[in-house]
Amino acid sequence: MHEHVSDPYVQRALARGYRTRAAFKLMEIDDRDKLLRPGSVVVDLGAAPGGWSQVILERAGPGGRVIALDVLPMEPLPGVVFIEGDFREEGTLARVEQALGGGRADLVVSDMAPNLSGVGASDQARAMHLCELALEFARAHLKPRGAFLVKGFQGVGYPGFVAEMRKAFDSVVSRKPKASRGRSAEMYLLGKRLKNGT
């Protein structure tokens, strides 16, 4: 608790009105990779409590669209379409597609992580499964020249997932933002331009 309260990113998030310190991770990646542009259409998977959606909304501007999904409830954010549900379920997917208006997204982001059980092998397997599901979603809902940013965890299954990303995208790079705690195994993978996109 002391580490959390004294964390400079937590303090900055509170000062600037962001719902989570993770907002700074997305900002840092976007500053480097220029993912968010005015008018961008973005799907935010695992959005609650909404820190990434806040950043996306700021950077995509009034012409942008943010569609946020989570199995957990999220306090409303003006300008964000929030869908509570599991994106693996047909009904939830239909609501996402309706929110996209029949179009596709410029960017899909996923900061999802499983609820930790404390059993390392099980937690890692569940985390990588979420990555695979997010990749499947991105391939189905991205524009051909769109981008996909996903949080993974280095360990068993991670190299295989990187290989799957490389099969899906022309460009795949890894990012470890300064706002990510040094001891954390989390790593962000960024894929750009779907292969065989039309």
Describe the fold and architecture.
There is one protein chain. By secondary structure, the protein is an alpha/beta fold. The chain has a single domain (20-194), classed as 3-Layer(aba) Sandwich (Rossmann fold), CATH 3.40.50. 39% of the residues lie in helices and 25% in strands. It is built from seven helices and seven strands, in the order αααβαββαβαβαββ. It has helices at 2-6, 8-16, 23-33, 51-60, 90-99, 120-141, 158-168; strands at residues 41-45, 65-70, 80-84, 105-110, 142-153, 169-175, 186-194. Strands 3-2-1-4-5-7-6 form a seven-stranded mixed sheet, with helices on both faces. α6 runs parallel beside α7. The termini are far apart.
Per DSSP, the total helix count is: 7
Q: By CATH's scheme, which homologous superfamily applies?
A: Vaccinia Virus protein VP39
> What fraction of residues sit in β-strands?
25-35%
User: What is the helix fraction of residues, given as a range?
Assistant: 25-40%
Number of domains: 1
DSSP strand tally: 7
Unreliably modeled segments: none
Question: What's the CATH architecture?
Answer: 3-Layer(aba) Sandwich
SS-derived structural category: alpha/beta
